[in-house]
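call fold target=Ferredoxin like protein
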Amino acid sequence: MTYPERDFDDRMSTVEFRVGDRPHITVDQDVCRSCTTQACVHACPANLFVPTAEGGILFNYEQCFECGTCYQVCNQEGAITWTYPDGGHGVVFRKG
Ligand code: SF4
Ligand code: SF4
């Protein structure tokens, strides 16, 4: 069985984010400022970690895929607090 080729934008059009009021991931700026790798910036598939000119990190949880990659790659204890979104919120993958 073969599957039809679909480009990234096409796939993304089937993803819905039901944004909750409570951020399910928080980032401790004080810890990030001493981070030498900033591995989260390159590892997050949604590009939600943005380095600032002051050496910190801007983070936006609203388009998070809940993959957990940032939590896995972060080498600074306590920098990322990771939980799942509250019930009924978060990413929804629909068949397109
Ligand atoms: S979240 Fe972790 S990997 Fe990313 S900048 Fe902060 S300490 Fe570094
Ligand atoms: S869980 Fe995945 S998509 Fe969400 S912020 Fe972390 S790396 Fe990015």
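return ok
The first strand starts at residue 15 and ends at 18. The mean pLDDT is 92.
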